[in-house]
Amino acid sequence: MTIRIEELVDDRRVVICCGTGGVGKTTTAAVLALESARRGRNACVVTIDPARRLADALGIEHLTNDPTEIDQKLWADIGGEGDAVVPGGRLSAMMLDTKSTFDLLVARNAASPEQAKRILDNTFYRNVSGALGGTQEYMAMEKLHQLHDEGDFDLIVVDTPPTRHALDFLDAPKRLTRLLDNRVFRLLMMPTRAYLRVASVAVQTFLRTVARVVGSEVIEDVVAFFRAFEGMEEGFRTRAQVVGDLLADPDTAFVLVCSPRRDAMQEATFFAQRLAEAGQSVQALIVNRVHPSFGDEAPAGLRAAAEALRQSPGEPAARLAALYDNLADFREIAGLERGHIEALRDRIGGGTALAYVPYLAHDVHDFTTLHEVGELLFDTVTAR
Ligand SMILES: Nc1ncnc2c1ncn2[C@@H]1O[C@H](COP(=O)(O)OP(=O)(O)O)[C@@H](O)[C@H]1O
Ligand SMILES: [Mg+2]
Fold first, then answer.
1. Helix (H, G, I), strand (E, B) or coil at 347
2. CATH code 3.40.50.720 for 5-294+335-383
């Protein structure tokens, strides 16, 4: 059964917004959290890269790794008449800080403060913890898990990084486990004596080769880094499992944001496939920046009217003919867009809710404009 977009903000506990960069993912995530708060829930949005003015509006212009509650006055009294908020709603926002989230994960999984310090002080860790492939994606999920466990939120909306790799978080738990099971890694993790014995051939050769390329201090750092993790694998593995379970929970929904342009549609198909491979389905497809339809007259009829006008004498008739042609162009574009979108929905599967947000003449960077998008979002759904 197809769900309604309203259900996402009214009933779900976690909503993850996916899609390529530039389609309006960050905007959509903020809109969904705002609308949920306006409907009386305690909502939090975790953003990745908000535009400066949006960050200002959300009160997170300075990077913090904990949610900031936004004063209700700023977001509750923005609707028109008859557009009141349900009392009791709360809205918080935070911007993901990959490094701090990773640090916290290490600190919590370490057996002792000394072990945590050994890792956090390690040069290799300091240099790569923010840049390792998939780290940002995985830390977004780690943060989600922390908020889900410790925050008192009814709904957490997560924005994802603006790349094709954004869905790497789906694999991150598996990848982490694979790394921990890796032979070289296991050898490096062995207590020193056993390590010297067993590692003498395979690992030493490997390390010597790597040392020639990157220098031996780096290698010492790397070895120290992996050694420092001793005993923490189990914690990481359990954590990865728990995050995987949270993503698979029926209270978690994936929303795919895209634009109606052909290349964006292709990207959206790719994202939907990746989600399907990971056993997740897209609950809602939000198509942002669609052209409005401007009525329902067929382009052919409009073109015929233009032609007839061109046969009539006089300048006003010619001008009107041009306008009819223009309208026919718009109707054609809107029709093509709808066609692409329906095809995409068919590819994704029948149960996906579909919503449109028109191309607005202005940016979306404050609560008034976010709410405007929210109303359009819910409106287009109920209208269909
Ligand atoms: N429907 C819309 N009409 C007009 N501008 C929009 C619309 N949706 C988003 N924008 C603007 O487009 C820009 C990119 O949006 P953003 O949400 O940051 O995209 P993403 O997170 O996918 O990269 C922002 O400046 C935003 O205000
Ligand atoms: Mg973004």
1. helix
2. no
376 touches ligand 1 (CB under 6 Å): no
80 touches 368 (CB < 8 A):
no
Q: Cα of 338 to ligand 2 centre, how many Å?
A: 24
Q: Which atom of ligand 1 is nearest to the CA of 28?
A: 17
Interval 291-347: pLDDT, tens: 877 788 889 999 999 999 999 888 889 999 999 999 999 899 888 888 888 888 888
What spacing in Å lies between the alpha carbon of 160 and ligand 2's midpoint? 7
| Percentage of residues in the chain having pLDDT higher than 70 | 80
Hey, is 287 helix, strand or coil?
A: strand
Strands annotated E in the chain: 14-18, 42-47, 68-69, 90-95, 155-159, 252-258, 282-290, 353-358
146-155, 158-167, 215-224, 350-359, range with greatest mean pLDDT: 146-155
* C-beta 53 within 6 A of ligand 1: no
Block residue for tokens 């109707």: 331
Q: For ligand 1, what atom is nearest to the CA of residue 373?
A: 1
Residue nearest to atom 9 of ligand 1 (CA): 24
Atom number in ligand 1 closest to CA 364: 27
The reported pTM is 0.83
Closest listed ligand to the CA of 95 = 2
Which comes out higher in pLDDT, residue 270 or 351? 270
How buried is residue 378: exposed, middle or buried, by Cβ count under 10 Å (0-12/13-18/19+)?
Answer: middle
- Nearest ligand 1 atom to alpha carbon 20: 22
pLDDT tens string 133-159: 567 777 888 889 899 998 899 999 999
Cα(94) to ligand 2 centroid in Å equals 13
HSE-CB of 42 using CA atoms within 13 angstroms: 9
Most trustworthy range by pLDDT among 182-196, 209-223, 311-325: 311-325
144-157 in b/e burial notation, b at 16+ Cβ within 10 A? bbbbbeebebbbbb
Closest CA to 282 of 188, 346, 204: 346
Residue 21 Cβ < 6 Å to ligand 1: yes
